[in-house]
Design brief:
By secondary structure, the chain is an alpha/beta fold. The protein is built from 10 helices and 9 strands. Bound molecules: S-adenosylmethionine. S-adenosylmethionine binds near residues 87, 109 and 159.
Length: about 270
């Protein structure tokens, strides 16, 4: 990080408040509030993803896994930060199997309830002989409980938006990756077309909270979701943050016209 970046980071750290949806809350309170959201929705989280996105999240996640550039017939270590129920790890393992590679997945999440739902799901998959080598650990993105240069790939899907200290989380991702390691982040983003963004806003603010109430019994959690998406930086601004963390050949790719975006880079 340059001196200017460090000063900017320190300024962010010193700020007393931070966004939590459309509200500004005390910086120290955000993690607990985010935990409350995911505690509330853990059991219905996977099904709500399909309902809200009409299945689109599956296509985005497939693109994310493809962007990892897994090499065939290798043994790979994946760290999936904010891995929740283990959805990304399961998809990565499926791809590794198809490539004749073997993949150990380390899922790190701040929220034990989300991982509990993931373990239940893993138990079902294990019965179907589909999942193994998945390790769930409680921890935060800003302070990963992992040694330096220990992973070949690090993913974070729909997690970075919830993190209190994004710069620290990106630096941790860089630290944990081996030289040659691949970073891929999937997150909601913003549509360059103002007309489409307006239509999407109308859909998300009008329909998603009531759907959350109906399917998961949690309107407020899904109100937070749509608000937090609006407050997340644009793809270009976030790309600057990925570059500032030291990732090489960093790039952003909009998905579905900018509803979501992939941000990728290499640890050299
Ligand atoms: C929207 S879910 C995404 C889960 C999973 N990656 C997926 O795509 O299905 C966001 C997850 O981020 C986790 N989370 C929020 N803040 C975090 C932090 N600071 N460090 C690690 N995980 C965090 C939440 O507990 C939750 O499981």
């Amino acid at each position: 990080m340059s001196t200017a970046d460090k000063t900017e980071h320190q300024t962010q750290q010193d700020a007393e408040t931070i966004d939590f949806g459309f509200r500004d809350v005390a910086r120290n309170d955000k993690q607990g509030l985010v935990r409350g959201v995911f505690d509330a929705v853990a059991d219905k989280y996977d099904v709500m993803n399909d309902v809200m996105s009409g299945g689109l999240h599956r296509l985005w996640k497939a693109r994310m896994i493809y962007a990892l550039y897994m090499r065939p017939h290798t043994t790979l270590q994946l760290v999936d930060v904010a891995g929740g129920t283990g959805d990304i790890a399961l998809r990565a393992q499926a791809r590794a199997r198809r490539l004749g590679a073997s993949l150990d997945a380390h899922i790190i999440d701040a929220n034990a309830e989300m991982m509990k739902a993931g373990r239940k799901r893993q138990a079902v998959q294990e019965n179907m002989q589909q999942a193994n080598n998945m390790h769930f650990t409680t921890g935060i993105a800003e302070q990963l409980p992992l040694p330096d240069a220990s992973a070949d790939m690090l993913t974070i899907a729909f997690g970075i938006r919830n993190v209190t200290d994004r710069a620290a989380a990106l630096q941790e991702a860089h630290r944990v990756l081996r030289p040659g390691g691949r970073f891929v982040c999937l997150e909601f983003s913003h549509m360059p077309s103002a007309v489409l963004q307006k239509a999407y806003d109308a859909y998300s603010f009008t329909l998603i909270p009531p759907m959350g109430a109906l399917v998961a019994g949690e309107r407020d959690a899904y109100q937070y979701l749509v608000e937090s998406i609006r407050r997340f930086p644009t793809a270009n601004a976030f790309l600057g943050e990925v570059e500032a963390a030291g990732f090489a050949r960093a790039e952003a790719q909009l998905l579905s016209g900018g509803i979501a975006a992939l941000h990728m880079g290499w640890r050299l």
